[in-house]
Amino acid sequence: MKLIVAVIQDKDSNRLSNALIEQDYRATKLASTGGFLRAGNTTFLIGVEDDHVNKVLEIIQDNCKSREQLVAPVSPMGGNADSYVPYPVEVQVGGATVFIMQVEQFEQF
Which of 6, 8, 38, 72 has a Cα-to-Cα distance from 31 of 20 to 30 A? Predict the structure, then answer.
């Protein structure tokens, strides 16, 4: 058994949740915050048998797309002002960061 931890952008959360439900996969959603953009993320915890990992990864990939977004930089509070850019910058956001871990034991009560 594996535990899939997928960190995705909030905008993709409902679409991914619905796609997982359609395919009969159960998941736990947790609110999280990204460190780089300090924006809201959703972290999914999905427990699956080993032979279902690729299918779940496919569902995540199909529903969590990366895109370009303009973001206002955060001012350097106490940091190095030399590298501070005072105007919006276009960055790539979205997609998914996925971790797959071996589960030694699983219990459901």
Answer: 72
